[in-house]
Here is the input.
Amino acid sequence: MLGTISLLSHLVATIAFAVLGLALSVRRAPTGVRLAVALASFVTAFWAAGHVLADIYGPEQVPWLSRAETLRTASWIGVLILLQRRSLGLAERPSQSFVLALGLGFIIALQLALDIMFNLGSSSGSLTDEPFGAMLFVAGRLILAISGLVLLHNLYVNSGDGGGLSFRLFAVGLGVIFAYDLNLYTLQFLLGDINQSLLGIRGAVNALAVPLIYLALRQDGDGRFHLSRQAAFQTVSFSIIGLYLIVMSLLAYGLKITGGSWGQLLQVTFLAATMIAGVLVMLSPRFRAELRVRIARNFYRYRYDYRVEWLRFIDKIDSAEATRTELPVAPVRERLIEAIATVLECPGGALFEPLDGHGYHLTSRWRWPDLDVSTVADSAALTLYFSEAGRIADFDQLRADAAAGTSGSHGSLTLPAWAAGDKSIWLGVPLIHRDTLAGILLLQRSLAARDLNWEDYDLLRTLGRQSASYLAEAETQTQLEEARRFEEYNRRFAFVMHDVKNVVSQLGLLARNAERHADKPEFRADMIATLNASVSKMTDLLKLMAREPEVRGAAGEQPGDYVDIARILTIVAAAQRRQHSALELEGADGQIEIPGDGGRLEAMLTHLVQNAIDASAPDAPIRLQLELRAADVKISISDNGHGMSPAFVRDELFKPFRSTKDGGFGIGAFEAREIARAHGGRLEVESRPGEGSTFTLTLPRTGKTPGQTLKKVVRS
Here is the structure.
């Protein structure tokens, strides 16, 4: 039964790959990639046909079967290398092609030599007869399978650069072949014997790749494929990991067969130790930096992918990812240092900025606590070099020039004394903004030894200019913040002056009435209450001037305390009734609590009622009405005074420092509206000239009001 399944499985593979090879080779004007795939398809069909013959006549009649499999795998790897020849630099560097061909050729030749030497093609797949040769042979199979999967990984990840769906179909199709081989030979490596069931069905599994490969190549294309630097780094890293694991597994197997009764214990211990060591090496920043340098030097014409470097620099400065994940965001200067330092794999950096016209002082550092430099003088040779030339300073070159007693590429610049004793200082980058030296960036020596060229210097100069722009923007933001604070203080002072005017008016009225009513007990009691209220108000105003403004939370979050708005309105009405006896209050009988600041709400209502009194005749009625509704409370203040025109309400009423009253500050209505907005409410006005005005205040009954924006809360 198993032989029949294997026969049918490989017969299907033979027909499928033979048809694929013919379909690709007979097309008009086939490309080099098509011809390579057609050749690999014919080799695969030949290998599958060998399995068919082995199932009919016996494996001993087909001694070349295992060698055909080696050629099949090698042909598909050759196709993948052909697809990525430009990205790997093979088209421009023939020596690179030679090295790659030499490495793969050695592995393939070793496979063929071991096959012929130990006659592995006619064996049953057991590793017991020739343990060393068979294990090395299987390890070679694993190396080829891993190499194919690594190349396919890059093909799939980078297919969006120009190949689209075609490259992805091709990658998935070949992935079936290499992944199945990896699984098959991994089991053989671990168990010692090959799984005959998996071996028999392999032909049908390989045949599944045929339609995917045909669909990928049915349209004409030039086979161009661009490998990103990150993909190249992953390719080399995965290859190193795969080869490392294979070599360590071979050594562990050797310990097992030579260690006697302790063999299995030695094998497990050795594998665990080598895996830990491998992980530590791969996670080492120095190893990763050195690997990136080697890849950039040997695989690419240019060292940097400038699009990637620029986007990485911008993302680091903006720190958007940290903001999204609610991580602590480093200050902008530290982010700036890190953004430039990581370009050259520098472990640390320091920023110097001008301060009070007395040199450049250390303002920030990133992971460089041992740097013992605090100031670079304005008249220093390094500062003049940066200001005049705007070039990068290589302190290693300056040290070499100083040792040789010559002047090199830095002209007359000499090595600073503070850099002579600290050899970790590697590079100096000028931060130029509008032809002015806005800062100096010192970089610690890179983790990987690297020779700097024009690309490194140009990229550093470009990033230095952009960093100078960010520093200038940060300084501008600081100045704007200071101006905002002064503006906030002045605005607060205007509010205070308005309240002081009201207190002075009350005290003036009290003084005038004292001459006539000082002998009345009721007046004396009212006078004492008014004086206490005035003292309390002035004390609050003095505290306000010394207090920082509070910032409201997002989404209009209200103050956490709840106050009784009915009680506040009753207090305001009682106080203002001393000036204007015809003042009526409705709806304030019960307790109505809303979130807010009692002092600010009282000040706001006092302003509105005082404006109504000022606009009304002495005996004209003023009506205060409180209405409780489902989601909010509504307070109306109505008078029958002289009223206002629609144009005045629209253009003048809520503009600060505009008043129609003699001695007025023009701040009361503006402050009232700002207090209402700060509490998530609104203030509306209806007025007609000669008929009076109605101010309607609406305040929410809950602690949050949707749709509110960030506001400043200034207590009165």
Summary: The chain is about 60% helix and 10% strand.
